[in-house]
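Internal QA ticket QA-208
Title: Verify multi-chain structure generation after dependency bump
Assignee: T.L.

Test input:
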Amino acid sequence: MRKKFKKKMAALDEIFEFVGAFIEAEGIDETTAFAVNFAIEEIFTNMVKYSQHNNQDVLLDLSRDDKRIVISATEYDVDEFDITKVAEVDTNLETPERKIGGLGLHLTRQVMDEVSYRYQNRNSTVTLIKYLEN
Amino acid sequence: MFEIHRDENGDIILAGRFDAAQAEKARAVLDEVNTSCTVNFQDLKYISSAGLGELLLVQKRLMDCGQTLRLVNMNSHIRDIFKYAGFHTIFKID
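Actual output:
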């Protein structure tokens, strides 16, 4: 399933509806569904936050085979921002030292099995893979 | 759909989906919290890092004056997210 979405927070409801239809059509279990929703929100909102100079839609592409779910999110005509090179968050800091924000990519890495990035012709694609149990 | 309100005991009740688009709605309630209280996750189905950030903001402010949030009735998926974030050492979670 593929669909383009406006690059703004208000598009989240429409995105969850799109992802929900995919999850239902593919009979994906509740735990995997939570992870898929979570990772897509984090990647999409990251694009909204850091690409505000560009209003081109974001393309979401969801697919599955027997072993895995593959999610890709592509934004167009943007500067390179390789999320796989973002430094890990220290989750062991004491509360006063913890910063507000910055957890999204860390948590995406936790709930997904693979996170990769490709930048070509000023188009930026994040690909997420979640392996299915059984 | 996301709902947040305080019940007659002062507990914060969360319901639905606490995503990035709901942060402002949540903040309107959470900004009013000035003493220790319970946050009930019974009807909350989903939370993202944006929701975690809003709760951390309150917890840091409360801890500065010796107060704290107590989080109860999380589903297993949300509990995992709190653990991955290291928030299980920041909040009292029952």
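Spot checks passed. The first strand of chain B starts at residue 2 and ends at 6.
Status: verified.
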